[in-house]
Structures are given as C-alpha cells and as structure tokens.
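Re: [ENG-882] Designed sequences occasionally contain unexpected residues at chain ends

Forwarding the minimal case from QA. Structure tokens:
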C-alpha cells in the first residue's frame, strides 16, 4: 500500500498506481533508472501511463512523461493536461527534464499540478509553472 506524504484525491492516488504500473514496463537497460508517468486530460476520464523507453543510440531515448503525453494525444488528440504524476525509485524527488517540460507546455495551461513520487508514495505537489514559468511558443505570434 502506497504511503503518500501529502493528501491526494482518489483519482490522483489512482494515477500513482497507473504511473507505477507503467514504470514496471520501462526499457532502461542503459541507465537502469526506471521512470513512470501518468497524464490526465481535462474533460477525459482516462489516465494515460508512460515509461522511459531507452535506445542504444542514447539520444533516441524518450522519457516517461513524453511517452504518457504522446499516448494520450494518440488516443484523444490535443487536449489540456489536468495533472501529471511522475514516479522514480529515488529517495528524494525526481523532476521532469527540461525537454519534457517544453513538450508538455504545448498541451496545458501553466498552472496544472505535478505530483512527484517515489516507490513509497507521492512526495509533493508542485505547479507546472514552478518548473517552467516561460516556454518557447513565439511561433504562434508571427
Ligand atoms: N527520465 C525520465 O523518463 N523522466 C525524467 O523525468 C527524468 C529522466 C529517464 C530518461 C532516461 O531513460 C533515464 O531516465 C535516465 O536519465
């Protein structure tokens, strides 16, 4: 049974389970650093899991957060993210990488919650804005 460090809704608790299950599907023989993620879109009941999928080229590796996002987009098209849950087997927090943040930024209003978790449970809640207050989206302004 997960021991969460903060109070979370039943749905967020479920997202932890989905992220953890996805993490178990990781393909990370190069880093041995399994990561899981879960994305929920606004107005959609479904929870989409993702894991990191590494590659012998290293550079072609895709993080768990982007795997979850592209699965959700493939299933439902472009929607706005309601929340994201990320799990890694670290003692402390593992935060989304900057590349994932830039990709996620195109599918959200910046204030959505990000739940950071480890194998024991959810450690903390942050706002996407805490990670990426400004993102590159100037192409829309041309
Ligand atoms: N990784 C993720 O999947 N998400 C993160 O938030 C951090 C890093 C993956 C990429 C790579 O497969 C492994 O973790 C080590 O960097």
């Amino acid at each position: 049974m997960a021991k969460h460090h903060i109070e979370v809704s039943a749905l967020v608790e479920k997202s932890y389970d989905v992220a953890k299950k996805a993490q178990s599907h990781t393909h990370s023989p190069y880093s041995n650093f399994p990561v899981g993620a879960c994305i929920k879109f606004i107005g959609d009941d479904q929870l989409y899991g993702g894991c990191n999928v590494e590659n012998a080229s290293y550079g072609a590796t895709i993080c768990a957060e982007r795997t979850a996002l592209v699965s959700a987009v493939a299933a439902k098209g472009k929607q706005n993210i309601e929340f994201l849950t990320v799990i890694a087997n670290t003692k402390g927090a593992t935060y989304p990488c900057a590349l994932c943040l830039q990709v996620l930024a195109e599918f959200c209003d910046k204030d959505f919650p990000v739940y950071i978790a480890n194998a024991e449970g959810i450690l903390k809640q942050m706002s996407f804005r805490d990670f990426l207050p400004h993102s590159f989206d100037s192409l829309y302004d041309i």
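QA comment: On inspection the terminal residues look reasonable. The mean pLDDT is 96. Proposing we downgrade this to a documentation issue.
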